[in-house]
Structures are given as structure tokens and as C-alpha cells.
Design brief:
single chain; alpha/beta; Alkaline Phosphatase, subunit A; 2 domains; nine-stranded mixed β-sheet; seven-stranded mixed β-sheet
């Protein structure tokens, strides 16, 4: 019987993992992946935990799932009654974390639903799992809360290891296990800090135990093992609390965790904390988003000046984006980099410079989605045109998407403990992730959403037609595992 084990090391940068591998710090992973089992993937935007898990577990992007961020406001439903309508203002960082499953677009099926013999360990996306198949739910909440304030993350990973090895022995066909310690330690230090590297070495030890357990059962050659991450990270040297920034502009602003504000003129929803969605005049329901030209009018935020121009003058802001109409997004950059349009044109996407080249593409381009990935995966904003169009596919996305420059983030006052590293932006350090496997992977980059159909194919499960993931990787065999010494 074929099996799949998907290991997600939250917040692991590919260059950090590759350097550790080159130093000989990860012998089990080196033996498992060999020379053909490693590539870099491009995650989904916003590059943040839970949202960026959706591609792996649904085969769909956050836009299609209508889960555009870890915090959002339902612009069509919210009328300003913050308590009565609190379900229309979402944050997966608190008591509403369990709402994520129900927020996914109806009809999108997780791998847990397509493969009933599956197990989820420390997963924030649990749609389709029964309590028996989600055995660590209580531990995840307990250790997650303790780790956040005590800054002690390794016990979470240790619990994941225990459930993973028990799941192998129980014979589950699909196992998803999320290791949170690397991300936790990166937030409190740097993406390659000593505690991060120690946690990564512990993951390598877990992989050695996993391989040994599968080999003892005679199931190693039938098991596809995939090691991934949901986002990278970078050091934060400056916090620009975006909600407080709007207030300093004279804009009455609602934001988490205190969402009450009488007659707000803006709602700010921060993700990761390198990006944010901004809603103009929340509490006045409307179906359509406002274009950038209207958002530049001071009246849109209840003030007498162009808030967008002031925002773009901030060193923390790399880009802002707004939807002109369905399939057409306007992007503006800071530092007088000007504006450009991204337009969906059937099977192709066009990028047209107007007053500048904010995405640093070098000029006008029209490419297929795959060509965009290949052309931009290692640029300043990997896959940005595809990712921004997807962001505005979600009806819950704000009027304005604000993207932070590397080294900055958008949350300070309520971020306790302080984030010394972060993610959530479109920058390369946040968007690139490792995609490693015991099966040969295609040369060149892939999107993380492409892992989903590959896993289903290995399991012999029909791949749903309505997916964003493309069948670029066909893992027809797994490689022999070399001796680790």
C-alpha cells in the first residue's frame, strides 16, 4: 500500500536548510533526498502560517479558498455592530482559529476528505478530520500558548514527533505533521539563530526515526516523504504599526485585538507581519472594492489628504495594490518607483508599466503562469503578478493590500513578545521555501500548490479538476536511502 508523509517545518528558509545540509548538520535529510530530491518552491501570498498551508492541503490558493489572510473583514456583511457581527471580523490568531475550516470556499475538499485514512498532527487546517484523526488538537493549543509567551517551542516539536511515529505504526495512508519550533525561534531571534538550527537538527533526528520505522515495517519504498515549509523569514529592524499610522493620519481605525471603534474610516488587518489588508469605510456594506484612484481621495478615509501618497512615502512600505476591476490590479511602489497594471488575459498575465516598474520586472511582459514562475522565482518579488491576482480573487480581501519592505513589519503595540524576525510579505526571503523529497523532483522551482496533485497521484486518488495546483511533478519512484553512518 502506498503512503505519503508530508512534513511541514514552519518558517524554514531554503538557504538556511541548504547551508545546514552542506555543513553535514542534517545527515538523515541528506540521505533521504539524495542529489535529485531538493528544489525551491514559491509559497502563497500572504506568506504566513495557516493561510499558506492551504495549497498543501487543498491544492487551491488562498484566493480560491476565500481565506485571503490570517485576519480579514467581510466587507459585504459587516455593518459596524462589532459585537453582534464579530463573526464578520476574523482573526485566526485567537479564539476564532477553529473557524478556518468553515471559512474555506464550499466545494473545496482537503486531502483529509479525499483520503479518509489520513492523520493530521498540529494542523490548523483540519477540515475532514475526526477527533481520532486529529489526536494533537488539545496539545497544539496548550503547547502553542505556552510557547508563545514562554518562548519555549521545542516541546511542540517533540509532541509532533511522538504522534508522527505512532501514526506510522498505526498504518495511516496519509500523514501531515507540522513542526512549529523553527518559526517560533526565528521570530524571537533570526532565521538562522542557534535555537532555530538546533530545532532543525531535531527535525533531522525525527526523519531518521521515521525512516527507520518505515524500513522496519517494509514500507519505505512505498512511502513518499515530502519536506516543505509554508514561508521563509527575515530579520525585522523596524516596526511601523500600520493601525497606529492610520490613526496618526487622522483616520479612525479598527484593528485587532481591540476591534471596537465607533464609525471607523478604515480597518487594518495585518498578516505575518509583513503585509496588511486595509478596508476603507468598514461598517458600510458594499460588494465592490474601491480602485486606487478613489482610495487616493482623502474622503475615502474621512480626511483631507491623499493617505496613499503618505503611505508610499514610508520606508517600511514596498508596494500597495488595489483592484481596478475583476482581473485587473494596479500596483504602486514606494521611493517614486511608480505604478503598473497586472491584467489577466485568458491563459496569460500581462504586466504593463505606467509611471514606473514597481515590481522590478525590467519592462512590460506578457507570460503564462508557468513562465511567470520561471522568470521571477529568484527576483525581488517572486511570482508577484500571479500572487496578487490571486489575492484579489477572494471576496474578503480588502480594498488595499500593503506589502512591507524587507527589514520592516506592520505590527508593534500588541505583538508580545516582540517579533525580531517576521514574514508575510512578497519579498524573496519570505516567498521561497524548500521542497524536498525522497522522490526526484523536477528541476527548477515549483509552487507549493503543485505538491497536492503529486501526493494524490502517488496515492492513486483521482485529482479533482478544480485545482490551482498543476501536475508538474509525477513522483513515479522513491530513491533508495543512503546510509547515514
Amino acid at each position: 500500500m502506498k503512503r505519503v508523509v508530508l512534513l511541514l517545518v514552519d518558517g524554514l528558509r531554503p538557504d538556511v536548510a541548504e547551508a545546514a545540509l552542506a555543513r553535514g548538520d542534517l545527515p538523515a535529510l541528506a540521505a533521504l533526498t539524495g542529489d535529485e530530491g531538493r528544489t525551491r518552491g514559491i509559497t502563497a501570498f500572504p506568506s504566513t502560517t495557516s493561510v499558506a498551508y492551504l495549497p498543501f492541503l487543498t491544492g487551491c490558493t488562498p484566493g480560491r479558498c476565500n481565506v485571503p489572510s490570517i485576519r480579514w473583514l467581510d466587507r459585504q456583511a459587516y455593518t459596524g455592530r462589532w459585537w453582534a457581527e464579530r463573526e464578520a471580523v476574523r482573526s485566526y490568531c485567537g479564539y476564532q482559529a477553529g473557524r478556518l475550516d468553515g471559512d474555506i470556499t464550499p466545494g473545496i475538499r482537503t486531502i483529509f476528505e479525499l483520503v479518509p485514512e489520513s492523520l493530521g498532527i498540529f494542523t490548523p487546517v483540519a477540515k475532514g478530520l475526526t477527533p481520532e484523526r486529529d489526536p494533537s488538537r488539545g496539545e497544539r493549543k496548550f503547547w502553542g500558548a505556552l510557547a508563545h509567551y514562554a518562548q519555549w517551542h521545542q516541546p511542540s516539536d517533540d509532541a509532533v514527533t511522538r504522534h508522527l511515529l505512532a501514526g506510522v505504526e498505526a498504518g495511516w495512508r496519509f500523514i501531515f505533521a507540522q513542526f512549529p519550533a523553527v518559526d517560533g525561534y526565528a521570530h524571537q531571534s533570526t532565521p538562522e539563530g542557534p535555537k532555530v538550527l538546533r530545532a532543525l537538527r531535531k527535525v533531522d533526528q525525527t526523519v531518521a526515526q521515521l525512516v527507520a520505522a518505515l524500513a522496519a515495517r517494509g514500507e519505505l519504498e512505498e512511502t513518499l516523504i515530502v519536506i516543505v515549509s509554508d514561508h521563509g523569514a527575515s530579520v525585522v529592524h523596524t516596526h511601523l504599526d500600520l493601525a497606529d499610522w492610520f490613526r496618526a493620519q487622522g483616520v479612525k481605525t479598527m484593528s485587532h485585538p481591540v476591534i471596537w471603534e465607533r464609525n471607523p474610516q478604515a480597518a487594518v488587518m495585518v498578516a505575518g507581519n509583513g503585509s496588511a489588508m486595509v478596508y476603507a469605510k468598514p461598517g458600510v456594506p458594499r460588494a465592490e472594492r474601491w480602485p486606487l484612484t478613489r482610495l487616493r481621495e482623502g474622503a475615502s478615509f474621512g480626511v483631507g489628504h491623499d493617505v496613499i501618497a503618505a503611505l508610499l512615502a514610508e520606508p517600511a512600505v514596498a508596494l500597495v495594490a488595489a483592484e481596478e476591476q475583476a482581473g485587473l490590479v494596479r500596483v504602486a511602489g514606494g521611493d517614486t518607483t511608480g505604478e503598473a497594471l497586472i491584467e489577466e488575459r485568458g491563459e496569460e498575465i500581462g504586466y504593463r508599466t505606467l509611471t514606473g516598474d514597481p515590481l522590478e520586472m525590467g519592462g512590460d511582459l506578457q507570460l503564462t503562469r508557468q513562465q511567470w514562475l520561471e522568470a521571477t522565482w529568484d527576483r525581488a518579488y517572486p511570482d508577484a503578478c500571479v500572487q496578487l491576482l490571486d489575492q484579489f480573487r477572494a471576496s474578503r480581501t480588502g480594498d488595499l493590500v500593503v506589502i512591507g519592505r524587507e527589514g520592516f513589519d506592520f505590527r508593534q503595540r500588541f505583538e508580545v513578545p516582540e517579533h525580531k524576525s517576521g514574514h508575510g510579505s512578497l519579498v524573496r526571503a519570505h516567498m521561497q521555501v524548500p521542497v524536498w523529497s525522497n522522490a526526484p523532483v523536477p528541476p527548477g522551482p515549483m509552487r507549493t500548490v503543485d505538491v497536492y496533485p503529486a501526493m494524490l497521484e502517488w496515492l492513486g486518488v483521482p485529482v479533482p479538476a478544480e485545482l490551482d495546483g498543476e501536475r508538474r511533478w509525477s513522483p513515479g519512484r522513491v530513491a533508495a536511502v543512503a546510509e547515514t553512518g
